[in-house]
Amino acid sequence: MDTEFFLAWLTGAAELVRRHRDHLTELDAAIGDADHGTNLDRGFTEVLQALDDWPPTSPAQVLLSAGTTLIRRVGGASGPLYGSAFRQMGKALETPVTPAGFATAFEAGVRAVERLGKAVPGDKTMVDALVPASRALAQAVQEGVEAREAFERAARAAEEGAKATIPLRARKGRASYLGERSVGHEDPGAASSALIMAALAAVS
Amino acid sequence: MDTEFFLAWLTGAAELVRRHRDHLTELDAAIGDADHGTNLDRGFTEVLQALDDWPPTSPAQVLLSAGTTLIRRVGGASGPLYGSAFRQMGKALETPVTPAGFATAFEAGVRAVERLGKAVPGDKTMVDALVPASRALAQAVQEGVEAREAFERAARAAEEGAKATIPLRARKGRASYLGERSVGHEDPGAASSALIMAALAAVS
Amino acid sequence: MKKLINTAESVIEDALTGLAAAHPSLRVRDRVVYRAGGPRPGKVALVSGGGSGHEPLHAGFVGHGMLDAACPGEIFTSPVPDQIIDATRAVDGGAGVLHIVKNYTGDVLNFEMAAELVEDVEVASVLVDDDVAVRDSLYTAGRRGTGATLFVEKIAGALAEEGAPLAEVARVAGEVDERSRSFGIALTSCTAPAAGKPTFDLPEGEVELGIGIHGEPGRARVPMAPARELAAVAMEAIHGDLPLEGDLLVMVNGMGGTPLMELYVVFAEVTAFVRGKGARVARSLVGNYVTSLDMQGFSVTVCRLDDTLTRLWDAPVETPGLRWGR
Amino acid sequence: MKKLINTAESVIEDALTGLAAAHPSLRVRDRVVYRAGGPRPGKVALVSGGGSGHEPLHAGFVGHGMLDAACPGEIFTSPVPDQIIDATRAVDGGAGVLHIVKNYTGDVLNFEMAAELVEDVEVASVLVDDDVAVRDSLYTAGRRGTGATLFVEKIAGALAEEGAPLAEVARVAGEVDERSRSFGIALTSCTAPAAGKPTFDLPEGEVELGIGIHGEPGRARVPMAPARELAAVAMEAIHGDLPLEGDLLVMVNGMGGTPLMELYVVFAEVTAFVRGKGARVARSLVGNYVTSLDMQGFSVTVCRLDDTLTRLWDAPVETPGLRWGR
Ligand SMILES: Nc1ncnc2c1ncn2[C@@H]1O[C@H](COP(=O)(O)OP(=O)(O)O)[C@@H](O)[C@H]1O
Ligand SMILES: Nc1ncnc2c1ncn2[C@@H]1O[C@H](COP(=O)(O)OP(=O)(O)O)[C@@H](O)[C@H]1O
Ligand SMILES: [Mg+2]
Ligand SMILES: [Mg+2]
Ligand SMILES: [Mg+2]
Ligand SMILES: [Mg+2]
User: Fold this and answer.
1) pLDDT interval class at C85 (50, 70, 90)
2) Which atom of ligand 2 lies at the shortest distance from residue B76's CA?
3) What does CATH list as the number for A3-203?
4) Distance (Å) from the C-alpha of residue C9 to the closest C-alpha of chain B?
5) How far apart are CA D228 and CA D2, in angstroms?
6) pTM score, two decimals?
């Protein structure tokens, strides 16, 4: 897993976010303020721009650059959260990158989201997609399956985690203001997390 | 034609205006500001109230009271115009009231509208209903037909005059701001004038 | 129709109750809004009025440096002579009273009747007719009075505070009107409470050009366009009637339902347009000042300033709708 | 969607251009709105910010007696740390900087990150959370910051002008928040330019109770009712959380698309309600101050005054959105 791999991941994530932008915004309109799609699309566009302007020379640099850009350009709740996740992942990532090393770094990134947002699984946030993804990744690595397979399991876990937010009542973020009325809608941040993991699995 | 007759006329006019209030307002919405029906309904309601509070003892008093109330309670363009019309009619009315005397007084009332509003027939205003009504009345009286018949001719003339405003381009009042766009709509004030004349013909 | 009212019949009364409660500097009696403290001896008094639905105009401009009284009529219906007579008599401080009348048949007739009936007070009157969307010709009731009314009330009010005599205040008021022009564009119609539905239908993709402030349709209907183009339409109409030169007082006015953010977007375009003509925006106002109920849209009003008018515009004013310098 | 904009992407930039052109007392640089004239030596500086779409909040409250800088984010999206860092460094006059933060996850996270990164400036921060529609519990992100933000900015700003130290300004700012409560009701949704359609659908006969200021749906949907009843719903919610007693500062705030006349109707009802509870409306504001784009509706914010807060509220203020005393 070299620098190219991580560039491909973020490029793929940016494409998926762009393609699903309006859907993410609609999810946010239902239980938030209708800006999640535009926020992330703006952010990932800037991420690719920055990676293009200052070409990174290591996987860690890719993640650090992406995290910093998301923090500096997105705003809202998702900006600092995703930004910190990528930055922590970058800081924890050791080169050469092994699947096991990546799983550890990824878990550090997810921890950063939990620490910053103080959300736990079940609060109906991106954490509900990221934590299962992190677990699946660690599990797969332990089982020694090859990277590609491990990423696919993580992506599936994230996707299932996102869908599992539908029946939940939000306890964090804007959706929590709706109380009972937040039930029955998928959390936009969990949905975008699933997209980012899908992009990881799609890197070839 | 005694005091009762004139009270009956105004009572009938008030009823017709009430019944056609929304229609008059819709006509005004098309080429004005959507208040003619409410203006006149408010005005005639007050007219009856005042006639009830201070019972008039002569036909002239009925008209003077009605005119004053319309001026004091309606506002807009139609308030001063209709108000002055009834006031002038009252001033010019001689008792005992003969059909001929009424025709003369009515003409004086119409003149007041023309003087105040400076509108001439063809400008697409109430004048287009009132002037033909006045002419028909004078004509009928000259021919010596009985009152009831004379009033019916006047009402018909007013009605035709109102409908005849449809193809006209307004040159006075709010409708004139629309220029060509005022063509194709009946003038609300002409329509209300026709109602007032219909009430006259309906007095029995 | 969804409106924050109790009943369509009581809306004016209820709003005036709220206005009086919100502004101790005002007094409301018999449908007239007065500046508290009674007539100012020796000061020319200013009285204006017109249909309601244009808030803050006129009642929101009663106070030091502007109006002494405002006569609110029913919605979009000019006030009745009684209100104007009461107001004129009550505010006269011996120096006479200026009636500021927007040029609409109803307003003109009712103010004229009132003026005739107060022989005991010296009354002068100024007619505001700044709307370039209406050609002043034999074929119209003449230009409508719109945004310039605020300029006339502010500048004449400042002059009156300085102690100028009635004739002088009336002269300058007329001068402000002559130097001012307006043009309005509607994105939506407005809904009068009594009517209960929009005065006219305006499809999603279209706007009305040359609207007045009573929800009446405009001169023409065109496809919706970016703010830059809509601002240009309004400014070209104004510039074509009164060339933009020198120092200008410019108001970008919201029609009541348009948020401030959009008005600033329009103002940015208007400023660029003015610069493009070699003139200068010396003073400005951006906000909802002369409205048409809940209509979405804007109007631009431009006044060519000179040193005197600028001084009078800058003079202190203390009203609910306009306040600076005290 | 019909809006007076050029493009959904450029609306913030365009509006800031118009804001700067309209108000010589402001400076706009890198998405931060500053009070002209640079930092005030020895004066505690106030910085606030949040998503755009709430105009005049926050940029309209930059000036003497209120904010030293405002950081506007994208529409309904909190600003990024860079803006807050730039603003904090630029306005510090040596006495430290107070961050006024509305309680939303995004605002809190971005202001926190910024505060951590400016070790060179003494920063204190106050969290505004006045919306009683949201229960503050383990099950929510806590109460939203809405109308009380204006009260905090005005009163803390006046105290800072008096030369009070950062700790004192922060303490009083927190006290204003503790003494304030708000409740909002929407008649229509709002349309974010980027979304292009209303955030939620609200049928003709219904209203949303307990809305925030980001077009998010409220706590419940009920049939439309007369202003008197809607005002009572809002006031009961407030009174149930903070009993109405003594002298009150009351704001009846429009959500952006509601005309002033209707807000006065609501204010009349609110005043009557307060009187009914034996309290007194000692100070008030009626208008569009903390808005949600083009949403129609209103919110009521009440603050229990004491002599100090009243004095600070009355102190001179000179901003585009709030001005008196100079
Ligand atoms: N405290 C939190 N912890 C973790 N994730 C959160 C938290 N608050 C919000 N989020 C995530 O952020 C998403 C909303 O992001 P976005 O709409 O971009 O920001 P905002 O809510 O400020 O408009 C939510 O769907 C949720 O997944
Ligand atoms: N100058 C005028 N002369 C005669 N009638 C007029 C004149 N101006 C307006 N009207 C009449 O008044 C009617 C409008 O009355 P109304 O709607 O009550 O007042 P407003 O136009 O002030 O809203 C018009 O339909 C027209 O018939
Ligand atoms: Mg959001
Ligand atoms: Mg009318
Ligand atoms: Mg009218
Ligand atoms: Mg947001």
Assistant:
1) very high
2) 22
3) 1.25.40.340
4) 10
5) 32
6) 0.96
